[in-house]
Amino acid sequence: MVLTRTAMGEVTRIVVLSEQELEQLIERAVSRALNGNADTHRQEDRLLTPTQAAELLTVTPRWLYRHAKRLPFTRRLSRKALRFSEAGLLRYRDAKRN
């Protein structure tokens, strides 16, 4: 870390990272973002496959694929990879029961 002074006399901090440290920092941030866990203080959330999610909701995986765009707990990892937030899925299930 390097401390410098601006023309106005304010102290600024410059953090120097190695390439490996930067890669690790980026990997952790991307992992949290993909899991919907940008806030590190929240409880860890698992991403479920369509088959696992279907069992929890007592629907078919086909139903989940058809309705994925309208379900708020859907996470699309790529064009072909679809996952579902377990925490979001449980909240959805509980709301539907009430």
Topology, element by element:
Layout: E1 2-5, E2 11-14, H1 19-34, E3 47-48, H2 50-57, H3 61-67, E4 74-76, E5 82-85, H4 86-97
Antiparallel strand pairs: 1-2, 3-5, 4-5
Helix pairs in contact: 2-3
Largest sheet: 3 strands, antiparallel
- Domains counted in the coordinates: how many? 1
Mean pLDDT figure: 84
Strand-pairing-aware structural class: alpha+beta
- Tally of contiguous helical segments: 4
- Rg (CA only): 20 Å
The helix/strand order is EEHEHHEEH
Strand content: 15-25%
Tell the overall outline. elongated
Q: CA-to-CA gap between the ends?
A: 54 Å
Stretches where pLDDT falls below 50 for ≥5 residues? none
> Strand order within the widest sheet?
3-5-4
Which percent bin holds the helix content? Answer: 40-55%
